[in-house]
């Protein structure tokens, strides 16, 4: 109707003409508005550097989603304004410029304008937060409390979770693991480390580091190692950090990962100091049990018995109430651990009304031996040892007897000492090994020639000591073998023979005495040394008795309390 010609126009009534005029005006206004809108859209597209196909269709029509979004946004703003939520009079900033206030805030330095606007809009949407946001040191952080687990901002109170609450719900960071590894029967150290969560490659490096300080044979069943594993981005979540291993009470090996990630090791050895110690043993039954009660080390006990075997028969000469006194060298750590024992310096046995005392002495020519108080060598002056086996019990003497295996009476041409298998056997005197091999019903057999007329024999041995072969020279009291039950034997024992001119005789009937006493300056030095040793022993015993008394008094006081 807007294109009606004048001729046609005259046909309409005045009312119709008015409608035609109004319709034409609206048509022109619509075209003008469309043109302005088109220009505004083009300007916005150019300003935002957008492609037209993102905003307009092929027919240059505005895409519906933008039209709806714009209309919804406009409706939201109008609604908020109408409700007073964004009324400038309700804002803390009044009529001041928002951007200027936000940019002047110290907490907003370094924050983009978009983030500042977001924070401000949030404070307008939630007035109860506006005052807190205005004074917050970090306004952007207020926004984070509205984010759910997916990162979306939500205002629902049911899903609001502050960062502090999230942190409380997060699992704690994994801590270092400390483990104690025990070497079990059949295990290797490498296998034990792998079972603890250490990789095979690192287990091999650790074993290599330990082997630099100690033989792997020293790693025994039952030994324990302390291992620490640190958190790591590995498949298991952990990696080796450190290991502590004590192969013996004197050494501690530390294996660790250094700053460069390499596996290194160090060894800490305790300082050992040589000392002189003394013990007094009250014998009431077993010598070994009494010595153990007196805190005498086993090695010193065995050596003392061996020393007195030159003159004492421990099966028949010992009675309850007898005493044994010993002074010896020891090697201890600072914390009191006994690393090892040394030589016996002085030993005395009081058997009834008899007394035997032996002193260690080194002659001017460097020979070391034990001498009686008058300066005589116990090995030479006493002849052959009475008991050539450690703590053996004489089970059969020399002479006629009913043979336990053959069943008839037969001459027993030696002395039997019953003792457990493995008990040490000593050479009864200085000599040369003539035979060391199995021999007839004797089983493992040793014969020693001491002189052109005198020999000793040892039968039924379980094994020979290292180096004991024909032609080897041995000293009196030297270890030559171990008790056993080889050959014709009913049980573990030593069959001991003394042979004079090729004939077995009773060991007690043989008297071999050689005068080898100290003389001259050696004798003078020895006697002066005896006085010092006796005095030193008394001081050691008195000091130990005093220490024991103090300890007992302290224990009694604790008991009373």
Write the topology of this structure.
Layout: H1 6-9, H2 14-48, H3 52-55, H4 64-83, H5 98-104, H6 113-125, H7 130-135, H8 139-144, H9 163-169, E1 177-182, H10 189-195, H11 200-211, E2 224-231, E3 238-248, E4 251-257, E5 263-269, E6 272-282, H12 287-293, H13 298-308, E7 323-333, E8 338-351, E9 354-362, E10 368-371, H14 378-381, E11 393-396, E12 399-402, E13 409-412, E14 415-418, E15 424-426, E16 431-438, E17 444-449, E18 454-464, E19 473-474, E20 479-483, E21 493-500, E22 503-505, H15 520-560
Helix pairs in contact: 10-11
Summarize this structure briefly.
It is built from 15 helices and 22 strands. It has helices at 6-9, 14-48, 52-55, 64-83, 98-104, 113-125, 130-135, 139-144, 163-169, 189-195, 200-211, 287-293, 298-308, 378-381, 520-560; strands at residues 177-182, 224-231, 238-248, 251-257, 263-269, 272-282, 323-333, 338-351, 354-362, 368-371, 393-396, 399-402, 409-412, 415-418, 424-426, 431-438, 444-449, 454-464, 473-474, 479-483, 493-500, 503-505.
